[in-house]
Design a protein that fits this description.
The protein is 32% helix and 16% strand. With 441 residues, the chain is of the alpha/beta class. Strands 4-3-2-7-14-15-1-16 form an eight-stranded mixed sheet, sandwiched between helices. Strands 5-6 form a two-stranded antiparallel sheet. It has a two-stranded antiparallel ribbon with strand order 8-9. The longest helix has 17 residues. The site of one iron/sulfur cluster (SF4) has 13 residues, from helix 8 and helix 9.
Length: 441
C-alpha cells in the first residue's frame, strides 16, 4: 500500500488565526475532502464529548467550528457518539439520556454545536447495523455499527490522541472502532461474543472485608458478581466482559482479582476490525480523520479524571487514512521530549525517541495500527505535508465577521462611558519608564 498523505499544523499559537480550532477548519478546507461531498449530505461528526469530571476531551469550540464549515458548504452535520458498555461503575454514558446530559454538562448541545447531537446507537445501544467483514478481519467476522453513523452519507472523525488503558492509545481507529460500535458492538470487539472472559483470581479478593464489595456487585449489569464473607464468585457464563468490576477492583480497591492482562494485542486488532466495519458503511472518500495531538495524557477521556500530559502539544494531523494518521501521532509523540511531573517521568520515558506509552503501559501499544494494516484498512507508512495557515483578511473575516468598535462608535457618541466624570480624580498617570518591556527588578 502506498504511503498515505497527512496534513499537519503545529499546536503552537501566538497570533490571531492560530487557534487550533481555526487550523483544523483550514486543514479540512485545504484537504479537498468537502469537494467530494454533495450539498445535503448527512455528515456524522464523530467525537468523544467527555466523561463526567474529565477535563481532557476536545473543547466544544473545536467541533462547532468544523460543524459551521460543513453547514456553510451545504451539508447536514450532526455531532455523535455512542452508549458505553459500561466500563466502570460510575460511567455517565450508558444510556442515551445519560450520555446527552453528560455531553450537555461538558458543553456539547444543539445550541453550542449548531446542529443536533445524536447518540448513534439509540436509547440502550441496540440501534445498529450488522456489517459482514467479508473475511478481512483479524478477529471479527461481523460487527455492529451504530445506526446513525452507518446511515450517514459521510463521516468526519474528530479525535483526541492520548493514551488508553485497554487500547494502549486512543485516536481515529478507536474513535470509530469503539465509538462507532453500538453497545453490543462494543461487547463484540472486547471479545465477549467470541467467548473471551476476564481472568478471575478469587484468592486476591478479601470478600466483604473489601469496602467496595457492594459496588462490586451492583456495577455488574448481568448480576454476575457475588461477594460473600468467604470471597468472590463470578458467573462467567453470564459475564459480558464489560470491565466495570475490573476497573473498580484495580482503581478503587487496589486489587487485581478481576483483570485481563493479555488483552491489549487482541483488543487493538479487534478495534481495527471494528473500525473497518464502520468504514465499510461508507463509499470511498466519504470518511476523513482529524486527530488532535494535544493534552496527550496517559489515560482516556472515559475516566472521570485527567492526568498531566506526558509530552507537550504537537498539533493537528488529518488524513483519509485512519491507520496512518494514528501511526503518525504515535511517532511524533515518541520523538518529542517527555514532560516532568507526568507519567513520562514516573516511567523513565522522558528522552526524545523513547516509546512513551510503551514504557508507561509496559507493552507495545501499536496493536490497533498493526491490525489496521493487516485487515487492509490503511497503511502505517505516511508522508506529512505541513499545511500553510491562511492569514489573509478574507480568513480573518471568516472567523471575525464584525469589528465590534464599529457598533460602539455611534453608541459612544450618544452615551460615552466616561461622560461627565472628573477622570483626573481617579488616580495618577503612569510615569514614563526607561525600559517598559523589561523593568529592572
Ligand atoms: S462480571 Fe463481567 S459483566 Fe459483570 S461487571 Fe464484571 S466484567 Fe462486567
Ligand atoms: S472490588 Fe475486587 S477486592 Fe473488592 S470485592 Fe470486588 S473483586 Fe473483591
Amino acid at each position: 500500500m502506498a504511503p498515505s498523505k497527512i496534513w499537519f499544523m503545529n499546536a503552537r499559537a501566538r497570533r490571531f488565526l492560530e487557534s487550533t480550532a481555526i487550523k483544523a477548519r483550514q486543514i479540512l478546507e485545504q484537504s479537498g475532502w468537502l469537494d467530494g461531498l454533495k450539498r445535503g449530505d448527512i455528515v456524522a461528526v464523530k467525537t468523544h464529548m467527555g466523561e463526567a469530571y474529565n477535563v481532557g476531551y476536545l473543547r466544544p469550540v473545536i467541533i462547532s467550528t468544523l460543524v459551521t464549515l460543513l453547514k456553510e458548504r451545504g451539508m447536514r452535520p450532526f455531532v455523535t457518539d455512542t452508549t458505553t458498555m459500561p466500563y466502570h461503575p460510575w460511567i455517565s454514558r450508558t444510556l442515551a439520556m445519560d450520555h446527552l446530559e453528560t455531553a450537555n454538562n461538558n458543553g456539547f448541545n444543539q445550541g453550542s454545536m449548531g446542529c443536533p447531537i445524536v447518540i448513534a446507537d439509540g436509547w440502550l445501544g441496540t440501534d445498529d447495523m450488522l456489517v459482514d467483514l467479508q473475511g478481512r478481519g483479524n478477529y471479527l467476522t461481523k460487527q455492529f455499527v451504530a445506526r446513525a453513523i452507518a446511515d450517514a452519507d459521510a463521516l468526519l472523525s474528530v479525535a483526541h490522541f492520548k493514551g488508553h488503558p485497554a487500547g494502549g492509545y486512543g485516536a481515529s481507529l478507536k474513535n470509530i472502532g469503539v465509538g462507532g460500535a453500538s453497545k453490543r458492538g462494543k461487547m463484540n470487539l472486547h471479545g465477549a461474543l467470541a467467548g473471551d472472559k476476564p481472568v478471575i483470581d478469587a484468592k486476591l479478593c478479601p470478600g466483604r472485608r473489601c469496602e467496595w464489595w457492594q459496588v462490586c456487585e451492583d456495577c455488574c449489569p448481568e448480576g454476575s458478581v457475588k461477594v460473600t464473607d468467604e470471597g468472590l464468585t463470578v458467573d462467567l457464563e453470564s459475564c459480558v466482559y464489560c470491565f466495570a468490576c475490573a476497573n473498580l477492583c484495580v482503581n478503587m480497591a487496589g486489587v487485581k482479582a478481576i483483570q485481563r492482562f493479555d488483552h491489549l494485542p487482541t483488543l487493538g486488532r479487534r478495534i481495527a476490525d471494528s473500525a473497518l466495519a464502520c468504514m465499510m458503511t461508507k463509499d470511498p472518500g466519504k470518511a476523513f480523520f482529524v486527530n488532535f495531538a494535544m493534552d496527550i495524557t496517559p489515560y482516556c477521556d472515559c475516566y472521570g479524571w485527567t492526568d498531566t500530559p506526558i509530552v507537550n502539544g504537537i498539533g493537528i494531523l488529518a488524513s483519509y487514512d485512519p491507520v496512518a494518521v494514528d501511526k503518525a501521532c504515535i511517532d511524533m509523540m515518541n520523538a518529542a521530549p517527555g514532560l516532568l511531573n507526568s507519567e513520562a517521568e514516573e516511567f523513565g520515558a522522558l528522552a526524545c525517541g523513547a516509546k512513551k506509552l510503551n514504557l508507561i503501559k509496559g507493552k507495545d501499544i501499536e496493536a490497533q495500527v498493526q491490525g489496521g494494516v493487516a485487515n487492509g484498512l490503511g497503511s502505517d507508512e505516511y508522508v506529512i505535508e505541513e499545511a500553510p495557515l491562511d492569514r489573509s483578511q478574507a480568513a480573518i473575516n471568516t472567523f471575525y465577521p464584525e469589528i465590534p468598535a464599529r457598533k460602539l462608535k455611534p453608541m459612544y457618541e450618544r452615551n460615552h462611558p466616561l461622560k461627565g466624570l472628573d477622570t483626573a480624580s481617579f488616580g495618577r498617570q503612569t510615569e514614563l519608564m526607561k525600559d517598559p518591556i523589561c523593568p529592572k527588578k
